[in-house]
Structure formats: structure tokens, C-alpha cells
Amino acid sequence: MSELELHPLLSHLPEDALKEFTEWCIFEQAIAAGFEFTPDNSRLEGLLTPYYIEELVDQFVTATRNSIEGGLAALLAGKKADAHALQGIAIVVDFISLYVLYLVPKGKNNTLTTDEKLVEASQEQYNKLQEISQKYVTS
Prior knowledge:
Order of helices and strands: HHHHHH
Distance between the termini: 32 Å
Number of strands: 0
Low-confidence stretches: none
Structural class: mainly alpha
Helix content: 55-70%
Shape: globular
Mean pLDDT: 92
Strand content: under 5%
Largest sheet: none
């Protein structure tokens, strides 16, 4: 499996770009794979961007980790995100992108093999991060 590395890009993006990518990972990629999640918006309202990201990630992980697949995805994502040694909110975004990446192949809507889905999901994340970064980062 050839996993695209997102973490070198994350620390260079503004918080709004990280928020948009986090929302895409959760609300589009994970839900498209078949994971159900409805955030408690009352706990998200009025939060500054870093706290919003942390709260949204916490709510999603809490809602999806109560399975063997979810627990394993959290363990793998946490270990890998720690190894990337990012600072600030970028480490939370790195974690959620990895968590979703490892969770997606186990989604009820997946029809591909695990390796095929990992490659596809990794490419989707990379492409989306590139698209978002172009909106926020100017040359």
C-alpha cells in the first residue's frame, strides 16, 4: 500500500483550512463510507477554530470508536500522528485524517478490498487537502 503523506502540508495551513479539511474528512469521507454521525451543534457553536476542530473530532471519535475497527483505527492513527510530531491543532487534524483513513475500509458502504480502499481514501484526502490549500495559501 502506498499511503500519501499529508502531515508535511498540515503545519503550513491556516486554521480555517484545517477546519474545512476536518469537516470534509468527517462529514463527507467517513459518512460516505457508511458511518453515521450527527454532531451536537450546541457544543460547537461559538468556539474558536482550534477548539471547534478539537470538539468535532472528539464527538466523531466518541461516536465511532466503540467497535473493534474503531478502537484499532484510533490506536493506529494516534501512534502515527504522535510519530509525525506536529504542533498545535495540526496534530489533531493529522490524527482525524489518519483515523478516518483507517476507519473507511470497514464502512458498510465499502465494496473494495481493504488495501484498495486505503489507497483510494488516501488519494481522496490528498486531493482534497491540495484543493483546500490552494484556496487558503497564496504563492
